[in-house]
Amino acid sequence: MMKITLSFGMLLLSAMGYSQAKEYQLENVTTYRAKTDFYSNFLHIYSTADYRANLFVLATPMGNFSTLKLGEKMYAVYSEDGKTFQIDTEETLDRNKYRLNNEPDLDIRSLSVPVIKQTRKKEHPNSVACEVFTMKTGDLVDTLCIDTRSEVNTVPFLIPEAKGLKGLVYRIGNTMELVKTGRYTDVVKEELEKEPEQVQESGAPIQTSEKFVIWFDEKAEGEKYKAEYKKRKQP
Length: 235
Description:
Elements: E1 22-25, E2 28-35, E3 40-47, E4 53-60, E5 63-70, E6 73-78, E7 84-87, H1 89-95, E8 115-123, E9 130-137, E10 140-147, H2 155-158, E11 168-172, E12 176-183, H3 184-192, H4 196-202, E13 213-216, H5 218-233
């Protein structure tokens, strides 16, 4: 859970203060709008240049919720200052209670594995060809539109059960749609030119500096979580 909205005025950090934590410079951003009956949530995915580290922030009217993906591992995280991130113990314990182990990473896969089939149809949002798939989960059937040639791969975030499928998801049915994707600096410039209420509505963490740098100590945070898990399991 993001305990506060990310700081918009981040300063460059001194490495001495975070000697055990690793620095991640997030250079790319992809934003989705998740539409409901009464309001919209926004999912902002911030990625390193090689897309190996990703921070995604779900902005809702009730607050922001954050998850950090490093390689194949995902962690529920929060930040008190928008710079250093910690594992959210309560969120992780709640999400992983059925796993009956002390692993600090999350398993966000659904218990119901969808059946995804290619339709051989294409759509052309923003003049980009994306392939249309059907996705059946139980009795629910939706269509997906995915640019399978894109270097941006948002399938693991939005459809983690989909094995062997990758690419930039443009939409899931009529409820999830791509808003924008691009370099973080370009998106910041565009957002700052908007009306203040529009920026506030999307919940996008905006800063005026050219870098979006976060810190996370994966080893230390994992050990802290395991110690807390052990303490709570004791009679």
